[in-house]
Amino acid sequence: MNSAKELMKRPEVCSDELIKFIDDSMNGFRKYKILTTAVKLQLFEYTKDPVSSEELAAKMGCNPEMVPLLCDVLCECGLLVLNGEKYSNTGLTNTYLVSDSPFSQLNYLRDMERSIAMWEKLDEIITNGPVIVDKQSFFGDGIIHSMAENAKCGMLQEVVETVTEDIDFDSSRKMIDLGGGHGLYSIALTGQNENLKAFVFDLPQVTEHTKKYAEKYGTDQVDVIPGNFFTDDIGSEYDIVFSSLNPGGKVPDLIPKIVSALKTGGVFVNRQVPGEDANAMEALNWNMWTFDDTKKSSALYSFENSVSLEEYIDILKTNGFDVFKELDLTDGSRIIFSRKV
């Protein structure tokens, strides 16, 4: 039987760390919902110019008492600013959270809903194993546009500048972009060399989006090759084989195909994230799902037939490549330059 005196007994382990963890987790969720709600209600579209909370509520068709409360939180988050009685977007918001900005991240934000839905099933995944994902549905509108938006925020520019500075780029005439998806890297690279023809090789449902991006940016130097690079021929006589964050870039079985595709002296440019450096949360997130026909390995950004990046580089050296440069980029990825000898 419990006694009143037991209430004065303190736990041996302080609860502060646990309570902080719970509170921080909840606050992170609240911030996410604040942001997604503002986007869903198109709030940032109405605050490009200063507007009062009453005017804003009327434009949004929302409760006039709740809107200023939402706006005040957005001010604390650095997404709105209040001058007098009028709210307006910060530079951060106008750059990334409005629909007409070239750097808009709205597709990326919307694609987070799929990740949220996956994490809500974590107990089922831990019990039954990874969710099997169909490639066609995975590479639908959301993920391709999300990846394109992310790339334009700085990494595309850094990668293109790195590639053009570290190989004999101006004399290159033919390039293939393996698993190139949206094709923005190929589009940007051809924009730096008017004599370069680039081919984006990816799944048929993906290359339909690639063609639309090429049309959007007004280039006729980028074409597509629909297919599966694990099983299909990828062509030959390339000056550059380019691969960016494609897990196939750590699969040794593809190396002979890449060697054959390059001219002698041609360069394999392979950007990868060293998966062995992933933290526990990233590793769990990666292993919560897998494709129906291509299984992933437990290491981040790797398939079941992948090897570590360091081992892959060693294999390149024994299969007809001179690995002449490795560069770490600001996002933690690494570019490996290998010349066919």
Topology (elements, then pairings):
Blueprint: H1 16-40, H2 43-46, E1 51-52, H3 53-60, H4 66-76, E2 80-83, E3 86-89, H5 91-96, H6 106-119, H7 122-128, E4 131-133, H8 135-138, H9 141-151, H10 155-166, E5 174-178, H11 184-190, E6 197-202, H12 204-216, E7 222-226, E8 238-244, H13 255-261, E9 262-272, H14 280-287, E10 289-291, H15 309-317, E11 321-328, E12 334-340
CATH-assigned homologous superfamily of the largest domain = Vaccinia Virus protein VP39
Number of domains: 2
Question: Which CATH first-tier class of the largest domain would you pick?
Answer: Alpha Beta
Radius of gyration: 24 Å
Task: Give the CA-CA distance, first to last residue.
Answer: 82 Å
**Form type:** globular
Instruction: List segments where confidence is low: pLDDT < 50 over at least 5 consecutive residues.
Output: none
Domain O-methyltransferase C-terminal: 159-264
Protein name: SAM-dependent methyltransferase
GO molecular function: O-methyltransferase activity; protein dimerization activity
Keywords: Methyltransferase, S-adenosyl-L-methionine, Transferase
